[in-house]
Structures are given as structure tokens and as C-alpha cells.
Recover the amino acids of this structure.
């Protein structure tokens, strides 16, 4: 009896403690007079210094605390932020020969520590990107700039070595010269600057406040911000690495916003009154077909490549696997100004696929259910990462291709192994696979530039870091890709991309499986949320907490 | 004993060296750290070449290991790619306490690790203490009443707990106690994190957020430990000297906890001694699911990014802890069993 009483007392105490501790909301809320929002990231940003990380979760935070010279709205249109207007040939901001660009800075931009932002900050940013003692994540596109002039505090003149069309990729994050200049002077590098993880000067609607490793980052309203003051007082970015835990936290209200929601989780979140936003970020899940010397002979024949894509019911995959939230695309430039809207995705047509394979000489001569030619079975090595949705897609596509007598060997790798370079014997870049599947995007969407279709990027012992995993060297395509990079006139550039798209479409050098939008979950307490595919938090200053 | 301890430490030095070499070689096959540096797009080939040069990844593996071990401040490195090594190296090497800089976080490895160790120790030591005490009580209780209804119930639950995947327990408890309890209007636990960011890192917050992770760890560990204690206790309780102690009329509590448990503890101490060093490495799955900012999460994330310096730092710390705890285990043996002598 005494034992039972003891157990009962323990239970009562436990229930009381639970009640005491669980009061109050923990996600986004108005805490006292403060409006607080909690964003959930599934990966911790590597660093906050734009020099040192291209990681998505580092980049998207820029719009919170360190706005870019220009950003993109929810239609992915660029607009000036730190400038009075976007430079163009028409307004004289870009010279007719495309070799020079003049940026006129706003005169009311102030860092959160009270120091005025000037052209010296732009020049310093360029210098730091190009400084060999800084192990920056990429020197592109600053390595296309030959020099920068600062005739006065509010004017930046950028000189290019050749006309440079993708100039919108510049100045994604400005460094404060007055803070980091002395650090570079004393250390000879910014690699170890404390500022990288604790920036003491911000230039966004919020300013950095603290970073608890592995837990969260905290940003507070920046009263020095030159634009409209933020409506939310504090932003917490909480790190929750497990996808299922992220969904649970959003359901429970422990977070107000999450990203990269997987399709099967959408109904669960919608049931919990969480809004789902589908945002086009230029990504396209697609097949990269390898034409390497060691690739299967079949995929070197354009008729077989076309047959493969005719044989896959991509609309069904989008409908059944991705809950009809997306659709197959036609080109790598879908949802950008450079799309050729006259091109439609190849339809699902089994008979067409079969006749193309017959025409190419691949028939099932031995009756084993798989086509063959000259004693070689048509079995393709089809590889991708270990991401669940890709593995599921592989399994479905394997069945679809089997319908037309094409066999597949499915292979899956961790991302760092799948994307490892030729030099590191990665399966993609060494031509071990016939079909590779991943989601890709132009380097700085919505700018259309992509480097990895160039012949010079084909990996080899001499160029072990080459990025052309497809081993495709189409001279016409190569020339067009080189041409577009220097076309400052947007209409000429669009025309070039339509030619590029047509070649890639006809030759099936790449094929979309589905357009791969980012799926965001927005909790019911957050209001006025709009998200851009390129700079997601472009409007975070106007978000509100109910 | 002192000579024994010193000798064991000296013997462990070549062992640690071999471990470091093997781990470093294994890390070379763990993926390409430069592959994921381009963010969501592949790293440009020109950047790969430059970064490999600046980070020393273009050097032969044996030279990379030497730089990791003894540093590169005795030589010059080529940072600008002109083929001329003109910049003095700044790394001091692991032997001088410099485990390098994380390729991902761009911070000294020791800082990256030391930021997380306290969080892991708070979770793991609490869990271990609860598990050991609980398992001792259950194990001894079961051994004293073998094959009774209660023993069978404990055995059944122990096997259920042991056979359930840890991620299932973690997500199951999270959905029941954090998501559904809140939905049903009942008192609820937090889903993720070590504390509420808005409230701060207070003791009550940390304890509160620890409940579900500890339940998760305890359910599986409890089972293994309690079964082990039960079987060693059962064996000991059937020994002649226990029968003698009982025949002498010693109180039951004294027989069980002084005579039986102390002698049954030797194999248990071995198991705990082997487990303790791994407290530092954290609970990989539990920390990931509950977003606990500990070493397990740190390890798996940096492995996935091919961050050799951080992974080497963590692994060497664990290797050192294994050596130290093995020596401590030997010392405990001698304390528990006076017949054991170390020369």
C-alpha cells in the first residue's frame, strides 16, 4: 500500500512539473511587448561571412542581416537594394561594350554600428574575394572583374576583362571595411576572424545578436536599417537536423517556418493548419546522361535517349509521388526569363519508345525480356544520391523502363561520394554511371549561366576537377554557352539560350523528371510571408507575428 | 600501482599513433570535402583546384598526415598557385595541441569540439547515472526473485526495449508527449532543442528538454544493463560463500549488497568501463532527432561533409578516453577484488 502511495505521489509531482513547465507558447509569439519568430533550419549555417560559404542556409540568412546590392522578389525579378537603381545599358549604368558597370549607391545606408556604408566597402569586398590568403568558397564572379574604382563615396565603377553578362551574381553580401580591414591588416587573412561567426555590424532589417553552436542563431531588429523597420523584434533560427523532428516541431508550434518539407509530410502539416508554400527556385530534378567513353553504347544513340524519356510517365510520378505539387519540366531554364515556352516536356508514349529502340537496333533477340544488340544487353547503370524521394523515383522508373525492355541497375551514394570529383574517383565524374539523377539549377538563378556544359569542363587526368559529368562535348552547344556569357543585351542572351535549350531538348542531353520547387511550411502565427526562389527572405522585414 | 599506470600510459602512445594513422587513411575514403562547398550547385573546377591548394588537400596523403600531426610551420606553402611556395605555414599540428581548422565551420577544431562536449556530457552522464542505478535495482531485484511473475514482466519489457530501434522510440515519444499531448490539451514536453532560445539556458530548461532524450537512451540501455546484472547476480547468489553468509545469519541486505553485488560487479565494471569513453561521443540518433547540440550530431554532420580535421579530432579524443578509462577500470578491479595485483 505504501508503495502504491509512493508511486501515486511521484505521478502527481510529475504531472505538476509538466503543467508548470509547459505553459506558454514556445514558437513564434508575442513575448511581452516583443514579437518573436522562430525559423527552423535543418542544417546549421557554416559561417555568416559571405566569403566563406555558398551553403544554402548561410546564403538565405543574408537577407535577414546583410542585404545584397540587389535582391529578387517573389517573381524572381531583381530590384536594387543598396543602389539607387539597377545598372543597365539604357540608363548608362552598363557601357555599350559591356566592359564597364557603374553602381550608384544609396546615401542613407548605415551599418548597425552607426558607420556609413560607402564605395570603400564594395572595393574591400572585391579585394577580399581575390586575396589568395583568404580561402574563400569561390572567387566567381569576382575573378571576371579586372579592377574596381571608387571615384567617390557613393560611386563604384566595375571594370570587366571581357563583357560579363551574369553581373547580377556580384555583390551578394558586402563586407564592412571599417571592421574587417584592421583584422586583415593584423592577421593577413580573414579566415580566422571572429566576425565570421559573430558579425558586429549588420546592414539588414535585423542585426546579428548571438549564435549558440548547434542550437540557434538570434537576430534582433536593426534600428539603423535604412528601409522600413522590421515589424518583428527578434528572429530565432533554430537548428533541427532531422526532417521528421522538424515536422513535429512545426506541428507542435515550436517553430514558425520550415524549409525542404518532403512531399509525404505536406498533408500532415496542412492538417495542423500549417500553410505550405511552393516556391520556384529554378531547381529541376533531372537526368544527366553520360556520353563518356565507358558509358553504355546505347545511350550514345540519340534515338535511345529519346526512347528512354518517352518510356517514363513523368506526369504520373509527379502526381503519385509528389502529390501533384509539381510537374515535369522541359529545360534547365524553366521558370526563368530565359525559358523557351514553345518547348513542352516529351509526352509519355510507350509505342514511340519501343519503335525508337527497334529503329536503333536494340531488340530482345534472346527472349529474356531485355533488349540487346550485338550480344550486349541493354542494362543501364542508373545512379543517384540516397535521398528517399530519389530512391523511390528510381524504383518506379526501373519498372517503367522494364516495360520497353530496358534494364537498369540502381545505385545510390551519399552526396559527398556521389558528387566527388574525378580526382577523388567519384562515380558521377568518372563516367561509372549511364544515367545520373539530381536536382540542379543555373549557378545563380535566375541568371541562366551554367559552366558545366563546356567541353573544357570534361574531367580527365589533366583536369581532375572538371564538372562536365555528362562527358558531352557538342561544339555548337559549347560555342553558344561561351557566347551567352558575354551578351550584355538581355534579348540577345535570351535568343542564345533558346538555341541552347533546343539542342539539349532534341539531343536529350538532359531530361527533367520534375520541376523541383522548394516547399516551405509557414506556421499559422506568421503573417504577410512572401518568399522568393532566389533570395527567400527578401521581405522578412515586412513579416509579422499574429 | 603508479608504475603500472605510467607504463600503461607509455604503452598507449604508439597505440594512439597507429589509431591516428589508420583513421586518417580511412578518412581519405569518406568523400570529397570540396564536393559540397558549392552549396546547392557543384563547386567550380577552378575553385576546387584553388581550395585544394589553399587547404593542403592537393598534397600526398602521407604529407597531409604529417601536417596534421606535427604542423606545417616548418615549411612554406603556395597559396596563390604560381608554383612558388612563398607563405609560411601556420599549423602547429595535433602533437602541439593544434588539431587544425574545420573545413566546414572555418573555426579551430578544438573550439568546435569544446563547444559541444559539455552539452553531450550533461545528457550522457545524466542518462548513464539513471541507467546504471535503474538497471542495478531492476537487475538485483530480478536476480533475487528469478522466474517470478515480476521477473518475467521485467524480462519481457527489457527485451521489448532492447529490440526497438532507437529512432522509433525517439520519434514515438516525441509525437506522444510533445505533439499529441499539446493537441489534446494535456501537459506536454518540448519537441526539440536543449532549451527554449527565448528563455535561455537555465537549469530547469535544460532538465525539461532532457526528459525525452533520456527516456530514449534509457529504454535501450536499461534493458542491456539490467539483463547483464541479473545474470551475474544470479551466478553470484548461487556461490558457496553466499550460502555461508546466509547460514551465518547475516542480514539479507548485507548479503546482497556487500557480499554478492560487490563480487558480481567485476564484469559489470568491465562493461561500464568500456561504455564510459563513448559518453563523449554522444548519442548519435538521439541527439539528431531531438536537435540536442552534442558530439554525436557534430560527428555525423562533419563526416557527411568530409571534414577530416573535426572527425580526426573527435575520434582521437574518443581513443584517448578509451585508453584512460581502461586504466581506470583496471584500478577499479583492484579496489573491488583485493586479490588483483598490478606489477
Amino acid at each position: 500500500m505504501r508503495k502504491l502511495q509512493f508511486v501515486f505521489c511521484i505521478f502527481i509531482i510529475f504531472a505538476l512539473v509538466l503543467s508548470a513547465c509547459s505553459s506558454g507558447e514556445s514558437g513564434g509569439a508575442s513575448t511581452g511587448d516583443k514579437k518573436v519568430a522562430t525559423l527552423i533550419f535543418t542544417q546549421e549555417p557554416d559561417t555568416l561571412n559571405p566569403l566563406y560559404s555558398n551553403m544554402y542556409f548561410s546564403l538565405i540568412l543574408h537577407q535577414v542581416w546583410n542585404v545584397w546590392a540587389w535582391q529578387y522578389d517573389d517573381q524572381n525579378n531583381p530590384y536594387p537594394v543598396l543602389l539607387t537603381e539597377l545598372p543597365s545599358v539604357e540608363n548608362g549604368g552598363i557601357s555599350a561594350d559591356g566592359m564597364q558597370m557603374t553602381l550608384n549607391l544609396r546615401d542613407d545606408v548605415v551599418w548597425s554600428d552607426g558607420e556609413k556604408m560607402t564605395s570603400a566597402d564594395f572595393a574591400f569586398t572585391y579585394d577580399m574575394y581575390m586575396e589568395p590568403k583568404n580561402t574563400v568558397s569561390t572567387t566567381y564572379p569576382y575573378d571576371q572583374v579586372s579592377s574596381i574604382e571608387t571615384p567617390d563615396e557613393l560611386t563604384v565603377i566595375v571594370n570587366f576583362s571581357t563583357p560579363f553578362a551574369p553581373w547580377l551574381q556580384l555583390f551578394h553580401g558586402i563586407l564592412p571595411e571599417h571592421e574587417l580591414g584592421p583584422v586583415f591588416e593584423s592577421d593577413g587573412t580573414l579566415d580566422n576572424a571572429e566576425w565570421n561567426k559573430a558579425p558586429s555590424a549588420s546592414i539588414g532589417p535585423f542585426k546579428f545578436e548571438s549564435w549558440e553552436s548547434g542550437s540557434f542563431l538570434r537576430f534582433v531588429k536593426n534600428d539603423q536599417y535604412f528601409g522600413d523597420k522590421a515589424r518583428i523584434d527578434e528572429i530565432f533560427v533554430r537548428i533541427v537536423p532531422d526532417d521528421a523532428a522538424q515536422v513535429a516541431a512545426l506541428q507542435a508550434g515550436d517553430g514558425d517556418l520550415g524549409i525542404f518539407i518532403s512531399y509525404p509530410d505536406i498533408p500532415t502539416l496542412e492538417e495542423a493548419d500549417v500553410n505550405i508554400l511552393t516556391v520556384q527556385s529554378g531547381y529541376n530534378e533531372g537526368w544527366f546522361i553520360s556520353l563518356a567513353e565507358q558509358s553504355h553504347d546505347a545511350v550514345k544513340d540519340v534515338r535511345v535517349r529519346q526512347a528512354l524519356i518517352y518510356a517514363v510517365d513523368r506526369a504520373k510520378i509527379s502526381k503519385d509521388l509528389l502529390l501533384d505539387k509539381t510537374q515535369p519540366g522541359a529545360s534547365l531554364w524553366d521558370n526563368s526569363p530565359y525559358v523557351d515556352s514553345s518547348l513542352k516536356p516529351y509526352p509519355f508514349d510507350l509505342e514511340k519508345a519501343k519503335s525508337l529502340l527497334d529503329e536503333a537496333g536494340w531488340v530482345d533477340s534472346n527472349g529474356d525480356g531485355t533488349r540487346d544488340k550485338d550480344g550486349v544487353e541493354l542494362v543501364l547503370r542508373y545512379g543517384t544520391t540516397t535521398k528517399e524521394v530519389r530512391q523511390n523515383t528510381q524504383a518506379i522508373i526501373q519498372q517503367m523502363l522494364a516495360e520497353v525492355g530496358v534494364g537498369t541497375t540502381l545505385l545510390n551514394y551519399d552526396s559527398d561520394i556521389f558528387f566527388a570529383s574525378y580526382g577523388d574517383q567519384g562515380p558521377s565524374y568518372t563516367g561509372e554511371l549511364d544515367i545520373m539523377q539530381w536536382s540542379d539549377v543555373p549557378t545563380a538563378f535566375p541568371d541562366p549561366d551554367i559552366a558545366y556544359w563546356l567541353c573544357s569542363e570534361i574531367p580527365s587526368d589533366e583536369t581532375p576537377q572538371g564538372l562536365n559529368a555528362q562527358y558531352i562535348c557538342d561544339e555548337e552547344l559549347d560555342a553558344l554557352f561561351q557566347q551567352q556569357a558575354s551578351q550584355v543585351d538581355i534579348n540577345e542572351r535570351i535568343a542564345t539560350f533558346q538555341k541552347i535549350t533546343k539542342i539539349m531538348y532534341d539531343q536529350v542531353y538532359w531530361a527533367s523528371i520534375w520541376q523541383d520547387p522548394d516547399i516551405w511550411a509557414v506556421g499559422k502565427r506568421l503573417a504577410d510571408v512572401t518568399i522568393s526562389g532566389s533570395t527567400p527572405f527578401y521581405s522578412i522585414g515586412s513579416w509579422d507575428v499574429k | 600501482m603508479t608504475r603500472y599506470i605510467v607504463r600503461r600510459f607509455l604503452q598507449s602512445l604508439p597505440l594512439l599513433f597507429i589509431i591516428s594513422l589508420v583513421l586518417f587513411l580511412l578518412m581519405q575514403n569518406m568523400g570529397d570535402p570540396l564536393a559540397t562547398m558549392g552549396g546547392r550547385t557543384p563547386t567550380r573546377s577552378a575553385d576546387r583546384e584553388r581550395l585544394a591548394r589553399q587547404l593542403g588537400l592537393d598534397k600526398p596523403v602521407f604529407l597531409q598526415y604529417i601536417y596534421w600531426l606535427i604542423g606545417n610551420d616548418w615549411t612554406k606553402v603556395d597559396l596563390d598557385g604560381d608554383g612558388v611556395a612563398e607563405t609560411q605555414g601556420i599549423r602547429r599540428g595535433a602533437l602541439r595541441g593544434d588539431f587544425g581548422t574545420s573545413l566546414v565551420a572555418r573555426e579551430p577544431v578544438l573550439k568546435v569540439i569544446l563547444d559541444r562536449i559539455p552539452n553531450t556530457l550533461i545528457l550522457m552522464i545524466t542518462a548513464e547515472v539513471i541507467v546504471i542505478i535503474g538497471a542495478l535495482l531492476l537487475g538485483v531485484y530480478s536476480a533475487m526473485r528469478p522466474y517470478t511473475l515480476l521477473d518475467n514482466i521485467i524480462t519481457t519489457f527489457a527485451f521489448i526495449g532492447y529490440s526497438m530501434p532507437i529512432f522509433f522510440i525517439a520519434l514515438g515519444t516525441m509525437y506522444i508527449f510533445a505533439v499529441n499531448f499539446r493537441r489534446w490539451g494535456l501537459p506536454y514536453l518540448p519537441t526539440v532543442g536543449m532549451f527554449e532560445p527565448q528563455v535561455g539556458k537555465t537549469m530547469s530548461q535544460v532538465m525539461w528538454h532532457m526528459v525525452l532524450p533520456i527516456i530514449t537512451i534509457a529504454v535501450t540501455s536499461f534493458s542491456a544493463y539490467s539483463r547483464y546484472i541479473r545474470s551475474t547476480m544470479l551466478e553470484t547468489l548461487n556461490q558457496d560463500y553466499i550460502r555461508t553468509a546466509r547460514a551465518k545469519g547475516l542480514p539479507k541486505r548485507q548479503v546482497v549488497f556487500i557480499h554478492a553485488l560487490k563480487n558480481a560487479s567485476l564484469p559489470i565494471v568491465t562493461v561500464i568501463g568500456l561504455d564510459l569513453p563513448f559518453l563523449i561521443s554522444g548519442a548519435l540518433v538521439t541527439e539528431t532527432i531531438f536537435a540536442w547540440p552534442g558530439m554525436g550530431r557534430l560527428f555525423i554532420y562533419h563526416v557527411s561533409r568530409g571534414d577530416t580535421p573535426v572527425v580526426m579530432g573527435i575520434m582521437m579524443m574518443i581513443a584517448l578516453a578509451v585508453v584512460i578509462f581502461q586504466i581506470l577500470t583496471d584500478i577499479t578491479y583492484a579496489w573491488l577484488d583485493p586479490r588483483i595485483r598490478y606489477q
Observations:
- Residues 242 and 260 of chain B are 7 Å apart (CA to CA).
- Strands of chain B lie at 76-77, 87-88.
- Chain B has a mean pLDDT of 88.
- The longest strand of chain B covers residues 76-77.
